[in-house]
Structures are given as C-alpha cells and as structure tokens.
Design brief:
It holds the Pfam family DUF6706. The radius of gyration is 18 Å and the shape is flat. A hairpin with a 2-residue loop joins β1 and β2. The chain has helices spanning about 5-10, 20-25, 40-55, 70-85, 90-95, and strands at about 60, 65-70. α3 packs antiparallel against α4 (about 70-85). The chain has a two-stranded antiparallel sheet. It has 5 helices and 2 strands. With about 110 residues, the chain is mainly alpha-helical.
Length: about 110
C-alpha cells in the first residue's frame, strides 16, 4: 500500500481523488508513492487540512452522478484527529463553546 492509498483511508469521510490526495501529501513533505510503513501520525496531520476543506462542501455532482456528504460526520472526524494531535486552534474553531470570563451573581 502506498502512502496515498493510506491517506485516502485515513480521511474516511467525503471523497478525495488521487490528485487532491497527492496535493495534501506533498504540502506536508510526504511522497505519495512511497510505501506506507504504519506511521499514521504523519498521514493524520496531512489529512486535517483536507478534511477542513470538505466541511464547506455539502454535496457534489459530476455529469449525471451526484452525492452528498454528512457534515456532522466530517466535523466529528476532524475533531477526533485535531484532539488526538493536540491542535487546540482547530478544535476551538470547529467546536467553539462560549467562555464565561466574569460572573457576578448580583444577589439573584
């Protein structure tokens, strides 16, 4: 199995064609045709920007074929990988929760 094939399996959500997979791998300094040796971390880190790009696409069509993507599933996969690798900026951007900075009970 090549790193490109493994990368497509790591993404798991949406559809990623060969040229897109190669682009994200090369942007992280990974040679797509190298043999996959089991290092998931490098592929998962390369997959995060790819999955981020899928979040904005809800459906695609080409000719007479069309398909839709589960935005919640994409979001959950992205959050899983971002949390696993300690990417708090990605987690906060996707799973933003309000933060209370001050609290005053005012006797209520």
């Amino acid at each position: 199995m090549t790193k490109k094939e493994a990368f497509i399996n790591v993404v798991q959500v949406g559809t990623v064609d060969d040229s897109t997979a190669e682009m994200y791998l090369l942007s992280k300094g990974i040679v797509p045709d190298d043999s996959f040796t089991g290092d998931l971390d490098e592929l998962e880190l390369a997959a995060i920007p790819c999955i981020q790009s899928l979040i904005t696409v809800s459906s695609q069509s080409e000719g007479s074929a069309s398909w839709s993507m589960d935005r919640e599933g994409i979001k959950q996969r992205l959050l899983f990988l971002a949390r696993k690798h300690g990417l708090d900026d990605v987690v906060n951007a996707i799973d933003a929760k309000p933060i209370v900075k001050a609290y005053n009970n005012w006797g209520l």
